[in-house]
Amino acid sequence: MPTSFNESVIEEFRANEGKVGGPFEGGNLLLLTTTGARSGTARTTPLGYVRHGGSLLLVASNLGAPDHPAWYRNLLAHPVVGVEIGTSAYQALAIPAEGARRDELFAHVLREAPGYGDYQAATTRTLPVVVLEPAVPDDGSPREVRTLADKILEVHDQLRLQLGLVTADVDAHFAALAAHEGPGEPPSPSLGLQIRQRCLAFCQALEFHHTSEDGHLFPGMAHYHPHLTDVFDRLRAEHRTVARIQEGLVALLADIGAADPPRFRAELARMTTELTAHLDYEEEKILPLVADVPWPPGTP
Considering the entire predicted model, what is its pTM? Predict the structure, then answer.
């Protein structure tokens, strides 16, 4: 099968520390890996980017075609993406900008790469501007991970932080609605794509973590600690409770324009209560059992 243009660019990029020739020579180029919205398969696409402060901006131009590119539809379904620049590779959270912020960022893009103006002129759709942020929020207190207990606690802390950021966004959304007075266009009552993307990323990370525990960690530990059957039964039951709340949040986010913000806020508060209690209980019962297990596995 002949190699496609994208595949040849990807091969050249990875073989030459991010440097390529042809139409991309000398430009800002990265590789974006998304998860297929329907297939669940990893898809890598070479894309131009523009820097804005500490963030990277992508424009879903599709060369001015009438439809959004596949990579944009994929990141709406799976907000955590892979990014390769030069020799570095990391995960990022992809958040499309909206309203006035989108217009401000697109104006910045045009100052750096005027060609995107031609793509916008060629189509009636508004070209989305996507901001790439760190996928794992940084609380400023790096944790040394040397044991399985450390690793579990690291994941738990990241989940708590992600949930806290979503809650802060939702609180800010309601505060903006409440503060609007007098003339002028009020803030949109819709939850918005930033809340959607952050919450969806949190829900997907939470599901992966609990699925891994149910499928691997808990069965292995139960084999060595049969006297803790009640503990593992409770943890699995709590996973099911949290999963039902998670499914409800994802359902509300399916159509962000039609979502019920008060209901979403109530379900998010319920998630905070249930998940916090679950994580606290799991740390109390499980961490002492794996405090001496090296991480990563096989570490002396």
Answer: 0.92
